[in-house]
């Protein structure tokens, strides 16, 4: 059973799987960049009352990273993604400038947009049945 998290005027568990892809799908995410990205994203999530549960880059293709985040109800998913991408891009480009120079001549790191899907909780069929049966005695 998932433990619900209390927020200011609500409680719940809003688990989202997010994928960020590097600009032009350049294979630039190394172990060191992955570790730094995860550190930055964890800290940024905390500033938004969110929780990073998992962070892992695809070190085979080295061109995207998967995040599992419990998103607070006070922030929209697009705003959270914008914060994460903007700040991590700036910091990674600054810290790994020499390594990224052959790939990026403009101030970019991430591809525009992001992938996401909701995760966790009960299967859709169970939720539909639960809602359908509201108001009826068992």
Reconstruct the topology from this structure.
Layout lengths: L4 E2 L4 E2 L2 E7 L9 H17 L3 E7 L6 E7 L6 H19 L1 H4 L14 E5 L4 H9 L6
3D structure, described in words:
Helices cover 36% and strands 22% of the residues. The chain has one domain: 2-Layer Sandwich (Alpha-Beta Plaits), CATH 3.30.70.1290. The longest helix has 19 residues, at 77-95. It has four helices and six strands. The mean pLDDT is 92. The chain has 138 residues and is α+β, with helices and mostly antiparallel strands. It is elongated and about 65 Å long.
The secondary structure category is alpha+beta
Order of helices and strands: EEEHEEHHEH
Main β-sheet: number of strands, strand sense, barrel status?
A: 4 strands, antiparallel
Could you give the distance between the termini? 22 Å
Q: Would you identify the CATH H-level superfamily? A: Transposase IS200-like
Strand content: 15-25%
Total tally of structural domains: 1
The low-pLDDT segments are none
């Amino acid at each position: 059973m998932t433990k619900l998290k209390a927020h200011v005027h609500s409680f719940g568990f809003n688990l989202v799987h997010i994928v960020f892809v590097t600009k032009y799908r350049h294979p630039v995410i190394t172990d060191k960049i992955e570790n730094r990205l995860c550190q930055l994203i964890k800290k940024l999530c905390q500033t938004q009352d969110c929780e990073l549960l998992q962070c892992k880059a695809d070190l085979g293709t080295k061109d995207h990273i998967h995040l599992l985040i419990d998103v607070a109800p006070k922030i929209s998913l697009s705003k959270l993604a914008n914060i994460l991408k903007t700040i991590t891009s700036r910091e990674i480009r600054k810290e790994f400038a020499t390594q990224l120079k052959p790939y990026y001549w403009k101030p970019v790191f991430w591809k525009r947009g992001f992938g996401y899907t909701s995760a966790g909780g009960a299967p859709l069929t169970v939720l539909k049945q639960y809602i359908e049966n509201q108001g009826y005695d068992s």
